[in-house]
Specification:
The complex is a heterodimer of chains A (77) and B (133).
Chain A lengths: L22 H7 L7 E7 L2 E6 L14 H4 L8
Antiparallel strand pairs in A: 1-2
Chain B lengths: L3 E4 L1 H8 L6 H11 L5 E3 L5 H9 L3 H15 L7 H14 L3 H12 L4 E4 L11 E3 L2
Parallel strand pairs in B: 1-2, 1-3, 3-4
Helix pairs in contact in B: 1-2, 1-3, 3-4, 5-6
Classes of the chains: A alpha+beta (77), B alpha/beta (133).
Chain lengths: 77, 133
């Protein structure tokens, strides 16, 4: 079954080897700020980027005792 | 099509706090809901409780928490006039607190596939709501 391609884009590698992924590409691929990407060279001229990190990894369990420190406001009298 | 999942403050607190008795269960429940194409969204109002906790620890913790939020969720969804008026309808129809109504309105207006909350009282208020244990 062929790979479904929903959007293409062309980017330019800068002098430091960096590229900027366009917004629509990031959105379609489910990529968010802080994500890490595995970069794999496949063939000459072909590279694969694969999301490797969980965006929640940076917050899960990082505030021990938070629930006890706050009194959740219901905004309702 | 990418899934869009809205998280409310009650779910966020459980994710952040490893001492919360339902922390592990919440992490597991949210992990089960997601795939590589799932985008997580939080409204600005959902940040309040998280930031209150950070404020108690000082400005450094607030800055760190805001960075965590941006890294994990991108820019939080602002509450605008349209969201507010729809939230009023949710609140009127279901007699729910304002923060909950704002979450539901945000989920509706962003065409979220699911709204994740730890508040069981929101069950049945919107088809998108999934109240986790």
């Amino acid at each position: 079954m062929p790979t479904r391609r929903t959007q293409d884009a062309e980017v330019t590698i800068d002098t430091k080897g960096g590229i900027r992924l366009p917004d629509n590409i990031r959105q379609q691929a489910g990529l968010n700020p802080g994500d890490r990407l595995a970069v794999t060279a496949l063939t000459p001229g072909q590279v694969r980027l694969t999301k490797t990190s969980d965006p929640l990894a940076g917050i899960i369990g990082t505030a021990p005792g938070l629930a006890a420190r706050i009194d959740t406001d219901t905004w309702q009298s | 099509m990418a899934k869009l999942v809205v998280l409310d403050g009650s779910a966020l607190i459980r994710l952040w706090d490893p001492r919360h008795p339902r922390h592990n269960a919440t992490v597991a429940a949210i992990s089960d809901l997601r795939d590589a194409h799932t985008k997580l969204l939080i409204p600005t109002t959902a940040l309040i409780d998280i930031l209150v906790g950070a404020e108690h620890e000082g400005p450094h913790r607030v800055r760190y928490t805001l960075k965590q939020i941006r890294d994990a969720f991108g820019t939080p969804q602002p509450i605008d006039f349209k969201t507010t008026t729809l939230a009023a309808r949710y609140r009127a129809n279901h007699n729910i607190p304002t923060p909950a109504a704002l979450i539901l309105a945000t989920g509706h207006l962003t065409h979220a596939t699911e709204i994740i909350t730890a508040d069981k009282t929101l069950d049945g208020t919107d088809p998108r709501v999934r109240a986790i244990d």
